[in-house]
Amino acid sequence: MSPTLDKLRRAFAGLAPRVLDAELRIQSSSSVARVSALLVESEDAHGSEYVSSRDMRRTFVSGFDGSAGTALITHDHAYLWTDGRYFLQAEHQLSKDWTLMRQGQKDVPTVEEWVEANLHAGDALAIDPLLTSVATARRLVTSASKSNASVVCCEWGANVVDQVWADAQPARIEAYAASVPKDTASILVDPAQCNVAVFSAIPPALRKEAPSIVLRHKAIKNPVEIQGMKDAHIRDGAAQVRFFHWLQEAVTSGQVVTEVSADKKQQQFRRQMADDEATCGRVTTDQMYLNDSGAQYLDGTTDVTRTVHLGQPTAHEVHCFTHVLKAHIALATAVFPNECEGVKLDAITRAPLWKVGLDYRHGTGHGVGAFLNVHEKGVSAYGKFCTFETITLIPIQRKLIDVTELTAHEIAWVDTYHADVRAKLSPLLEGGALAYLERETRPLVQ
After folding, report:
1. Are 37 and 140 within one domain?
2. Which residues, in sequence order, are CB contacts of 257 under 8 Å at separation 6+?
């Protein structure tokens, strides 16, 4: 049994019964018989997706360091929820003390469904009000109340994980709280962004709940940001072509290339985060290699994915890749009305995969910042009807495409895209990288 989990269980069992009610007011209550579980989320007090080392509480308690996941610890079990991008990583990193909850899979409950089914009258789930959003807290309170259970909050600044982490935790950045000015008319609160502690500190009469106006301003790029993003993708595309050319030559010549050594080589072309080489996989000629990466340039942010095979792909791999490409083209060429809901575009994208019994275990897309967050919330576009402009400029590997499974429209799209890639990247390349670009961007049908 994990010593860390044992310490956490003793710590949350002793929490005072500061119950969160339906209005998200924190008050003492005698209805709590025992604190039965502790929720450990990934975000910091600002709701950040990527947090500083001192805020990596979920990683500390579970060992899983993927960017998305939620841990829930009871007196007898420990659970980790994450999505399909991280199933393999979580299986590798979680110890036998943990149960992996594969989000979106059949018979796997959400956190809220688990709370409703497993907490009973007198039980309580502990959260940190500084780290749990208003929207999440409301869902948890609703789920717990269905079985006469409760949600309780630790004291402000007394996070349970921090108590166990103690001296080993990275240095704290001091936080300061300001009082609400007396002449304030109202304070805009986004339930999805604001944490419970801040929400409860604002007088109810002053709260005005609405989506954050900041999100829309960030999502709608100005002309300078748009041009910067396009320019950044041209430079990034050239860097990626150099990288994939090197990778093809290195692996096929027999060099030992691991995921991390490939990443380190890629950093010569653009900066990218590192990983633990001791546990990484090896890049070989007998399997697919997926490169999901990006870079922060002064004029734009890139987030691109390409999958290649450095040997001879199987018929099944080609079949799957080709239908993912068909899905990509379906979205890239979609024409949709303003205010179209994202779920409708999601269905348009997945349709070519569904036709052959395939699917993917993650969302279809996300907004990208302008020298800001890699992941941003998208917003509805202006105009009566809208379409997408493709700005990622990296070849789509030809050997993975079964032309017989593409329509004439899809073949034309690939050829047009590759012609654009070749025209914009050729001036930035030379030698083997240029030859690689020209080879991979030839028309599909000669």
Report:
1. yes
2. 247, 250, 251, 282, 283
